[in-house]
Write a structure and sequence with these properties.
Layout: H1 2-9, H2 12-24, E1 26-30, H3 37-44, E2 50-55, H4 58-70, E3 75-78, H5 96-108, E4 113-117, H6 118-122, E5 125-126, H7 128-133, E6 136-139, H8 146-155, E7 159-160, E8 169-173, E9 176-181, E10 184-191, E11 194-201, E12 208-212, E13 214-217, H9 227-242, H10 247-265, E14 285-286, E15 295-300, H11 302-325, H12 340-348, E16 351-356, E17 370-372, H13 385-397, H14 409-413
Helix pairs in contact: 1-3, 3-4, 9-10
């Protein structure tokens, strides 16, 4: 796709943007058309170790991710956590795999492009150093202490089952260990304590696939804590409940958090970690931003991003106030995500490029250098091939270079 890159690299405004990012860590392009974001990010990302694109909502994130993948780029949509403050035995983690795959890709140095929302960046997740420390490489021929390995898997969030069928499960049959890690399903066969073979396997058919020389196990927990932290969290929750003045709310908190306190006392994380998140020491937590060094942040229409986030936050805080009045949570839960202001400050410490459809920049992400770019949105022809051909002739007559991109080789030939 060098032709796509050449289109941007030959533009003076593109070269100026790179120069200002290198010099000032900040630049803004004005007059932007969102249809060009995927191709532009595809081009500029090669100059940075990591690139993170922030869009106004998840629908837009998925579209940009799809565009990048169609250009052959390693891109991950990184969704926000689905916070849940009620009791239930099982909390679904439908988007956990996507988040873990993105973090693992960053760790491996794949120079991935992460496409996400401002809300997802505010999520408190497992500290990046703890995540890295708890990865484990399994190599052909190495020795494994099976009891220690089982304890390790349980510690980083895996659940032992009869048969491995979903993410985060492992099973043991004789000397065969099946593990479904975010980076693949692996079958490790032991001869006594020695790794005799490592293979991928298909989750649906359970059949072994190709042989591997090694595999790496990735944590599937959003939290990994030291034993003393469990008791500290328990004490913090108890103290908050004691300080609750409303008698009815206090009784409800005692009823709701009682089982969680017992779980913490046994050095075990509850199923729904969202209910203990505000009480965890910050050293165990970080943002996805902390996983990425020497990164470029591309903000697609920062004004819309912040307006949307502020609206969501207002609704979120109203819901928290309602839950607090009913004794479902304590006042600490306004700390369940990183604050909007601190997240803005963290992003502004990095290289920031804003893509703006409007001409007035935001105060929060005010670029040190503003550059104008002339773009025109393409008409959606919706099968009107004759109109498309006429417009194509007009563009060619006016001296435009035209690049037509198709979803597949078959469509391109047609």
């Amino acid at each position: 796709m060098d032709l796509v890159k050449d289109i941007f690299k030959n533009l003076k405004v593109y070269k100026d943007a790179l120069n200002y990012l290198d010099r000032d860590n900040s630049a803004g392009l004005f007059g932007w058309s969102e249809g060009a974001t995927g191709a532009f990010v595809y081009t500029i990302s090669e100059d940075f170790n990591n690139t993170i694109v922030i869009c106004k909502d998840e629908t837009r994130c998925k579209k940009v991710t799809e565009d990048l993948k169609s250009l052959g780029k390693k891109a991950w949509f990184y969704p926000a956590k689905d916070l849940f403050f009620y009791e239930r035995e099982y909390k679904t983690e439908d988007n956990l795999k996507e988040r873990l795959q993105a973090r693992y890709s960053i760790y491996k140095g794949d120079k991935p492009i992460i496409v996400t929302t401002f809300r997802a960046i505010r999520d408190k997740i497992l500290n990046s150093k703890i995540f890295t420390e708890n990865l484990r490489k399994i190599e052909f021929g190495m020795d494994i202490d099976l009891d220690e390995f089982v304890n390790y898997l349980l510690k980083i969030g895996y659940e032992r089952t009869i048969q491995t069928e979903t993410l985060g499960e492992f099973s043991i049959r004789g000397g065969i260990i099946d593990i479904y890690s975010p980076n693949g399903a692996f079958r490790i066969e032991l001869f006594d304590t020695e790794v005799d073979s490592i293979r991928k396997f298909d989750i649906e058919s359970q059949r072994s696939l190709e042989n591997l020389d090694e595999c790496e196990i990735v944590p599937v927990k959003e939290l990994i804590l030291d034993e003393d932290e469990f008791l500290k969290i328990k004490n913090k929750i108890e103290n908050k409940i004691k300080k609750t003045k409303d008698k009815t709310a206090k009784e409800r908190l005692e009823e709701k958090f009682g089982p969680y306190l017992d779980t913490l006392e046994s050095f075990t994380l509850p199923k729904n970690i969202d209910l203990i998140l505000p009480f965890i020491d910050e050293k165990y937590l970080s943002s996805i931003v902390d996983y990425m060094e020497d990164s470029l942040f591309v903000l697609e229409d920062p004004r819309f991003i912040l307006d949307g986030e502020n609206d969501k936050e207002e609704i979120f805080l109203e819901n928290l106030a309602d839950l607090m009045s009913r004794g479902e949570i304590t006042e600490s839960f306004d700390e369940v995500r990183y604050k909007i202001e601190s997240t803005i400050s963290k992003i502004n410490e990095e290289k920031v490029l804003s893509l703006n459809t409007l001409l007035n920049p935001t105060r929060e992400f005010y670029p040190k250098m503003s550059l104008n770019i002339n773009m025109k949105s393409v008409v959606n022809y919706l099968g009107r091939i004759k109109v498309f051909v006429e417009d194509l002739k007009t563009y060619l007559y006016k001296g435009y270079k035209v690049l037509i991109m198709s979803g597949s080789e078959k469509k391109a030939k047609r």
